[in-house]
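Work through this protein:
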Amino acid sequence: MAMDRVIEKKKMAFWQWGLIAVVAGVGGWFAYGLLADASIRTYRVPAEQIIVSSVQYGAFEDLIPIRGTIQPFNSVFLDAVNGGAVEEVFVEEGSFVEAGQPLLQLSNTTLRLSAAQNDTRITEQLNNLSNITDGFETTKLNTERNLIDTKYRITTLERQMGRAEKLVSDKLVSEEEYEAIVDDLEYQRAVLANLLARQVLEDRIRKERLIQITTQNDKLLENLEVSQSSFESLLVRAPISGQLTSFPVDIGESKQGGQRLGQIDVIDQFKVVAQIDEYYVSRVAAQQSANFTLSGREFTARVDKVYPEITEGTFEVDLVFEDPAPADIRRGQTLQMELTLGNAVETLLLPLGGFIQDTGGNWVFVVDAAGEYATRRDIRVGRRNNRYVEVHEGLEQGDRVITSSYSQMEDMERIQLTE
């Protein structure tokens, strides 16, 4: 009877263990790659739906596009100085008017009555001042007449006294008559001294009062002029020559004091009024130039005034035309212009695109050499114009960047470009 034989299990060869280790390593590495790749937020997009631009060195022209509107260089608004009802309209809207030309007549019974009362009261006060002045002159003449009479009386008495002295010694005139002449002479001399003192006092008082009267008279005349002008303001006249571009008034309509009546534009000279993004408020200054094309010709304007007040994210500038100025332009016409903020400099440039609104220029997606993926990269940018943005950090010449909008991929870390 045959005996069972134990079969010994063969051990694996060393090369087999090595093969298993290699297979396991490759499988682990592949699995790790899949897991790591899955953890990266990836957005897949067809390559034809995006715009890829290259970073390059070039001359950066510090230009910004602006849109301006043609406006008259000088405009004057017509406001009602005093309110009233429109009684008569002398011109139509759009007419050309001359300075001082009547435009419309307002009616205001209350103002008319008030002006008449003021005229009467001021005229009475002027008459009173005139009477006071006349009184001073009359007093002056009376004092001078009294001085003449007194001096004449003194002269007469001095002659009488001289003759009387001789006659008294001959006993032809009594002592009493002689003394009466002497007493009368002394009295007249005292009267003369009094009149001279009174004349000095009257002259001083008259000069002081005449200065006061002159001042009061000037004020009254000024008040009279204001009163008359307030009434005359009911007849609205053109303050300058130009085109009456706005005049919304109708006969019988009531206008309040200070209410806008219309506008006159000086049409022989124009300016451009432009709204610029507040981002450039610190970089726009007077005398900067702007270029534009009109009817196939190139023209230049310069910044005349900068209004730094920000309204709804923009500020306003006025530009004036350099010679030669364009002909046949119209009020309200729009112009597309390029404003030069500085001199051109050589720097690293990235074409401008929709990405700048989504990232603020803080980061971009950079395409790899194979053109299959684009990864997110932080950058730092500087100035920008309507074509390029300056690159200070994060990119190098030749880098390819997605410059179209990132609106669908802002939260992604990688972009996969598909066919």
